[in-house]
Amino acid sequence: MAEAPKRVRTRHFARAKEQGIKITGLTSYDVLTAQIFDEAGIDFLLVGDSAGNTVLGYDTTLPVTIDDLIPLTRGVVNGVSRALVVADMPFGSYETGPEEALHTAFRFMKETGAHAVKLEGGVRSAKQIRRIVSAGIPVMAHIGFTPQSEHGLGGHVIQGRGEAAEQLLADAHAVEEAGAFAVVLEMIPAEVAKRITAELSIPTISVGGGPHCDGQLVVWTDWAGLTGGRIPKFVKQYANLRQVLRDAALAYKADVESGAYPDEAHSYSDESAEQALRDRTD
Ligand SMILES: Nc1nc(=O)c2c([nH]1)NC[C@@H]1CN(c3ccc(C(=O)N[C@@H](CCC(=O)O)C(=O)O)cc3)CN21
Ligand SMILES: CC(C)C(=O)C(=O)O
Ligand SMILES: [Mg+2]
């Protein structure tokens, strides 16, 4: 029997940073992609509230609820044997304080089997991070462009340019100090991400944060060419699934309409029924 792969733990993140081995992450929202990315050796899968865009068809992540994400997260957990699964805490599920944050984290840990949670915000979320970590739950932090505050930030704006770099450094230090095991840096200048990566002892995970971070994370539907419409500049295309699936649907429709599908090889037969039918018509 094949030996089960060694699970990625949060310790792996710290070791990877020490050894200069890059950490790889993708989002996932279902068991099928979780299995595929796990088999490919992706270190962690984030069940992002980006599901609001990629699965549910909203324009922003703001309407996404805990109850939307729990079944998706469970599906991803069911698909992995090695990757670490991170549950993204949605807008309105942790901001009022540490107790609300811990309650939400408990729900994800108990109801999904995820291995860690993620929440947005630096200094402003430090108390929440500290409380969740104190209950033994690993927390991935997320600073820079935080999509749940996109209205407050004035849209999809690159963060940490010029003077704002100092605030970003303060946010990075605050989440490390609060006990986060890693921090996502979203849409910030590469130079600033490089400085944060050098100053922190916990690994930095880039989402549009340039090449100097300790790891990278992308929304998988963007990366695989499945997302319709605009995708962020920092995303490189690794596949064109939209075209692959459209071509498959077109070929299927043509075959059904022409009668080419289903043929004998894709149908069932019952010879005794055929015989009975023949007997009756004889
Ligand atoms: N499909 C998807 N991909 C994501 O990366 C993503 C989501 N959804 N939902 C949640 C947040 C929102 N994010 C976004 C959304 C838009 C841009 C964007 O349009 N960026 C522009 C620059 C800003 C502008 O000029 O509008 C870009 O071209 O990079 C970036 C990140 C990242 N996250
Ligand atoms: C873009 C990443 C960091 C995220 O939070 C998500 O996918 O929801
Ligand atoms: Mg998110």
From TrEMBL:
Q: Name one Pfam family in it.
A: Pantoate_transf
Reported EC number(s) for this entry are 2.1.2.11
Reactions catalysed, semicolon-separated, are: (6R)-5,10-methylene-5,6,7,8-tetrahydrofolate + 3-methyl-2-oxobutanoate + H2O = 2-dehydropantoate + (6S)-5,6,7,8-tetrahydrofolate
So which cofactors does this thing need? Mg(2+)
Per the annotation, how and in what number is the cofactor bound? Answer: Binds 1 Mg(2+) ion per subunit.
Region listing for Disordered, in residue ranges: 261-282
Keyword list, A-Z: Cytoplasm, Magnesium, Metal-binding, Methyltransferase, Pantothenate biosynthesis, Transferase
The active site annotation covers 186 (proton acceptor)
Pathway field: Cofactor biosynthesis; (R)-pantothenate biosynthesis; (R)-pantoate from 3-methyl-2-oxobutanoate: step 1/2
Q: Where does 3-methyl-2-oxobutanoate bind?
A: 49-50, 88, 118
GO molecular function terms noted in the UniProt entry = 3-methyl-2-oxobutanoate hydroxymethyltransferase activity; magnesium ion binding; methyltransferase activity
Q: Which Gene3D superfamilies match?
A: Phosphoenolpyruvate-binding domains
Give the record's GO biological process terms: methylation; pantothenate biosynthetic process
Q: Where in the cell is it found?
A: Cytoplasm
Binding residues for Mg(2+): 49, 88, 120
Q: Which GO terms describe its cellular component?
A: cytoplasm
Summarize subunit and interaction data from the UniProt record for this chain: Homodecamer; pentamer of dimers.
Q: What does this protein do?
A: Catalyzes the reversible reaction in which hydroxymethyl group from 5,10-methylenetetrahydrofolate is transferred onto alpha-ketoisovalerate to form ketopantoate.
Family membership, please give it: Belongs to the PanB family.
Q: Which PANTHER family match?
A: 3-METHYL-2-OXOBUTANOATE HYDROXYMETHYLTRANSFERASE
- Entry's HAMAP family? PanB
For this entry, the protein name equals 3-methyl-2-oxobutanoate hydroxymethyltransferase
Q: Which organism is it from?
A: Microcella frigidaquae
The gene name on file is: panB
